[in-house]
């Protein structure tokens, strides 16, 4: 049985655990990752939404940064959502205080508060590449992908803003697939594991 780890330093961890459990229909084991050594035992990883400054700091202090980078290099599927998206990026636009250390796993540049404070949270019907009907996505203080490199495939946009993208084994989203009943995103992620 494939083991999938959800990085459990902060954020909406339990929601991803539940969503993966139901999308995996008993064929996957989901574990919460907090300690060194656990990432190596996982076949795939989820970096949840939450507060990227907090998760970034905790990654450093837990010593998990290098293990996470190694997993990405080994080609393990990684689903990064919202704050997770900020973390996997190469660069954060206009981040002068730089309290978030982007891991540089994906060739993207992030705009952290792309939708502005007046749009703290909203829902949108997205046309996502690979899905045959619209996906109702929940955005909460969402970042957006401001720039993508050549190896990055854009999967969805809200207006001009890129909100879903894939680069090989990395699937990154500005929204929260763990907060809705629609399990199609988690299913795409599980398919990446089979491939
Ligand atoms: N804007 C938040 C951050 O940069 C992410 C918000 C979220 O994960 N819902 O950490």
Please give a structural write-up.
- The longest helix is centred in the first third of the chain and has 11 residues, at 13-23.
- This protein is of the alpha/beta class and 195 residues long.
- It has five helices and twelve strands.
- It is globular, with a radius of gyration of 15 Å.
- It is 25% helix and 31% strand.
- The protein starts with a strand and ends with a helix.
- It has one domain: Class I glutamine amidotransferase (GATase) domain (Rossmann fold, 3-Layer(aba) Sandwich).
- Strand 1, helix 1 and strand 2 form a beta-alpha-beta unit.
- The chain has a seven-stranded mixed β-sheet. Strands 5-6-9 form a three-stranded mixed β-sheet. It has a two-stranded antiparallel ribbon with strand order 7-8.
- Bound molecules: glutamine (GLN).
- Glutamine is lined by residues 49-52, 82-83, 86, 112, 140-141, 143.
């Amino acid at each position: 049985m494939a083991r999938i780890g959800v990085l459990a330093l902060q954020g909406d961890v339990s929601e991803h655990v539940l969503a993966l459990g139901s999308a995996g229909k008993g064929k996957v084991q989901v574990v919460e990752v907090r300690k060194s050594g656990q990432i190596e035992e996982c076949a795939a990883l989820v970096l949840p939404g939450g507060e990227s400054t907090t998760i970034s700091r905790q990654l450093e202090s837990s010593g998990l940064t290098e293990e996470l980078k190694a997993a990405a290099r080994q080609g393990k599927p990684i689903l990064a959502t919202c704050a997770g998206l900020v973390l996997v990026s190469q660069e954060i636009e206009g981040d002068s205080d730089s309290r978030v250390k982007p891991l540089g796993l994906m060739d993207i540049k992030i705009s952290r508060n792309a939708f502005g404070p007046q749009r703290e949270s909203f829902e949108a019907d997205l046309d996502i590449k690979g899905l045959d009907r619209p996906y109702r996505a929940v955005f909460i203080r969402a970042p957006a992908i401001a720039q993508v490199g050549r190896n990055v495939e854009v999967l969805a946009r809200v207006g001009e803003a890129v909100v879903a993208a894939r680069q090989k084994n990395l699937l990154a989203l500005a929204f929260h697939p763990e907060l809705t009943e629609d399990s199609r995103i988690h299913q795409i992620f599980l398919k990446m594991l089979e491939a």
